[in-house]
Amino acid sequence: MLDRDGYPAGVPCWVDTTQPDPDAAVAFYGTLFGWDLEDRMPADGPGHYYVAQLHGRDVAAIGSQPDPTATSAVWNTYIWVEDVDASATAVQAAGGAVLAAPFDVLDAGRMAVCADPAGAAFCLWEARGHRGAQLVNEPGTWNFSDLNTRDPEGAAHFYGDVFGWEVNAFEAEGQSFPMFCREGYGDFLEQRDPELRHRQAEQEAPAGFEDVIAGFVTMTSDQFPDDVPSHWHVTFAVDDPDAIAEKATDLGGTVVAPPFDAGPVRMAVLVDPQGAVFTVGKYQPGGTSTDAQS
User: Fold this and answer.
1) Which of 201, 182, 136, 169 is nearest to 6 (CA)?
2) DSSP 3-state of 144
3) Topology match between the domains 12-127 and 142-293
4) I want to staple 52 with a disulfide (CB 3.0 to 4.6 A). Which of 15, 35, 145, 234 is the partner?
5) How far is residue 175 from each of residues 170, 181, 221, measured CA to CA in Å?
6) Residues of 206-233 as b/e, b for ≥16 C-beta within 10 angstroms?
7) How far is CA 115 from the centre of its chain?
8) Which class would CATH give 142-293?
9) 26 Cβ neighbours under 8 A, 6+ residues apart
């Protein structure tokens, strides 16, 4: 188990979900993943912000909807930046939109809410006291974020311009998996995990996989209904996707895609009781490692 303390600029660093009823979401996710949750919003603050911990490390959060009239829940992905104001300007210059202008979040950091040209929303995070997820890739923690887009060419240009990402396709068990990469990320990971590249080589991971920072999915009509817009999606690591899918149902959630094998990962797509969609997955030996987000 390796602790995290910060991320390089341009790398996803945190996930949270905004919910109409955050207390109900706390009950669902706390039971599903075994999280301990603490409300870190000041007593006189608007709404709630429950930070989830596992093994004493921050792993995700559940918050109130910024708009009290909103009725849908969603999982959000945050991208680490050095200067959120400059990054927001870069988003607009590249054809994206700033949905919520940069603002301070107490002493935790500074953020902005943005969207790419196809409408997929994401958050920018300039860290102060809060330095992102402290534990990832362990069962019950965030494993990965994927962009699901209806404009793959436009997305490649946009995220390349704003964050320096490249789209590379990797082969695993006869399938091709396009992913976002950021040059040098593997070097950053190896500083705290010297065995990373050796371990990936033993697992026959393709060259360059250590630089993967996010998934890249082209939305097609046979996989996504036409009314589902481009969006960011989160995956959590679990010990047993089949058991977690059953548990989620018992807790009032819904199984959208029953457990299935996709290359080296067994996964299931779930919806929580308030409508936030997420995936749970387990890496299966014999294919590409999921160490990229670690």
Assistant:
1) 136
2) strand
3) yes
4) 35
5) 8, 18, 20
6) eeebbbbbbbbbebeeeebeeeeebbbb
7) 15
8) alpha beta
9) 37, 50, 62
CB atoms within 10 A of CB 45: 12
H helix intervals, 34-138:
84-93
Distance CA 272, CA 264 (A): 25
Beta bridge partners of 112: 124
Q: Where are the alpha helices (DSSP H) in 117-224?
A: 152-163, 185-192, 196-202
Q: From first to last of the 294 residues of the chain, give the pLDDT tens digit.
A: 678 899 999 999 999 999 999 999 999 999 999 999 999 999 888 899 999 999 999 999 999 998 776 778 999 999 999 999 999 999 999 999 999 999 999 999 999 999 999 999 999 999 999 999 999 999 999 999 999 999 999 999 999 999 999 999 887 666 778 999 999 998 998 888 887 887 777 776 777 788 999 999 999 888 888 889 999 999 999 999 999 999 999 999 999 999 999 878 899 999 999 999 999 999 876 544 344 444
Q: What number does CATH give the domain 12-127?
A: 3.10.180.10
Determine how β-strand 109-115 pairs with β-strand 166-172.
unpaired
